[in-house]
Amino acid sequence: MSAASAVLAVDLGATTMKGAIIADDGSSVATLRRPTPVPGALDAVVELTRELLQTAVARGYRVVAAAVVAPGIIDEAAGVVRYASNLDWTDVPLRDELAAALGIPVAIGHDVRAAGSAEQLIGAGRGYDDIFFVQIGTGVAATQIAGGRAVTGATGTAGEFGHIPMVPGGERCTCGQYGCLEVYVSGAGLARRYHAAGGGELSAAEVSARVGTDPIADQVWKDAVDVLAQGVVTMTLQLDPGMIIIGGGFIAAGETLRVPLEAAIRSGLAWREPAPLVFSALGNTAGVHGAAVLAYRTAGMADVLTSWHVADAAEVADGAGVAR
Known about the structure:
By secondary structure, this protein is α/β, with parallel strands linked by helices. It has two domains: about 5-115 and about 280-315, Nucleotidyltransferase, domain 5 (2-Layer Sandwich), CATH 3.30.420.40; about 125-280, Nucleotidyltransferase, domain 5, CATH 3.30.420. It contains ten helices and 13 strands. It has helices spanning about 40-60, 95-100, 110-120, 180-185, 185-195, 205-210, 215-240, 255-270, 285-300, 310-315, and strands spanning about 5-10, 15-25, 30-35, 60-70, 75, 80-85, 90, 105-110, 130-135, 140-145, 150, 245, 275-280. The protein has a five-stranded mixed beta sheet, with helices on both faces. Strands 11-10-9-12-13 form a five-stranded mixed beta sheet, with helices on both faces. Strands 5-6-7 form a three-stranded antiparallel beta sheet, covered by helices on one side. A hairpin with a 3-residue loop joins strand 1 and strand 2 (about 15-25). Helix 1 (about 40-60) runs parallel beside helix 2 (about 95-100), helix 3 (about 110-120) crosses helix 9 (about 285-300) and helix 7 (about 215-240) crosses helix 8. The longest helix has 25 residues, at about 215-240. The chain starts with a strand and ends in an 11-residue tail after the last helix.
């Protein structure tokens, strides 16, 4: 009897690396979570994937491929991270470094693009070939899935939803433009605007929790919802998605976000119905599962993905070390 197949999947974030061994039935064999050292992220991700590989082999799995998804500008064809400011990386040949260390096929992808693919395949967008996935955390990024495939764009930088100028003459963004969506909607932007308006130094979650009891929180939250709605309306008219999925830390606000956002989107669409708006089903495991999807496709085993389910994805935990 041949050994069961598995892949190594890593979501490389600016502060945390999340790794998992994902079996070909979509279940999690083991997980690993480590801080991301900057500088030093390259050595750290190589060490993490090696540990995952050793664990998988020790448990009797045949590891067919690995994939790492990261933020920034990713040249997926070349396997190179062209630029990732939060990792202090420029032209890092991540695929080749990992392939040399692991001795198996390796793929590199964009974190939010991969997360959107996972949501479409096994998460909230299952059954839809066309979705628009927005990830709202410290910053904002998005991906369009069209005909079941993620849109990368001519230069591989499609999805910079957070840097679409939405407010004419608005506040300056860290990217150098003015009025970008991310200035108003992101976790960092919300906290900064609350403080600048005379509030205390609170996190975005603390600001959203004050909505309805704090006039400053009410105003900056309204600004955030209105700008996000305008962005979603624009994408709806341009892309005609079958579903809008919101992920990232912002969805912790629950109905405080969903109710006014749905109303604002509907009011912005005069002649058509809005696409269904849902929150991510995969939560903070979307990036890891997106990496797993990429790895199985790289191994030529995309057929196994059709049997995966959200329940399998829920097995990926946030433990500090290898689990189960």
